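Most newcomers find our protein records easier to grasp once they have seen one. A learned vocabulary of local backbone shapes supplies the integers on the structure line. Here is such a record, shown just as it appears in the course material:
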Amino acid sequence: MIHLVQNGTGFDTNVKTALKGFLAQKFKDENDCSDTTELDQYIEAGKKAADTVCQYVDWLLSTVNPNPPDEDMWIRPEVHPCQRSHDDIPEHEKQSDYVDLLNMVQRHTRCSTSYCLRKKSNETELKCRFHFPFDICPKTKLEFEKVHTSGDNEHYQAKIVTKRNDSRLNNHQQLQLQGWRANCDIQ
């Protein structure tokens, strides 16, 4: 899950258009409307804007693991991938190097009270402060959550739920990960 920030690149405009579409759909679902032409236009524009946002996020980062270790197909390499130089990796080994880096440095493999498990004051259950494990998600999507505000106005916060096939994989960018050769935390 990624919280979106306005950055002046047109990204925020698409998010606002998607929110208008979301609110139009919500209004249409909750009310009996005789003419929905204008609402339908907002809804369609919102879907296109949300798709644009999701395509951009998918281009920018990933939470997809080509070979998750939980499927028992991945074999731990003899040499830790962080000990190898990117320049020394032959082209035909780049994909397996990427998978090795993902599985060795980009996964939140265990939760423990000494590291990430915390209990909020109003809750009894321990939860990972990084929110692991995440739900598997077949496609990146833009969601809107109502946020608590004072007054009668409703406010929403946009968030991205990324396409994910590995519940314990951190957000990453392949080029950055293979160049840096260590854990990369993208917020």
Notes: The first strand starts at residue 2 and ends at 3. The chain has one domain: 10-108+136-180. DSSP finds four helices and five strands in the chain.
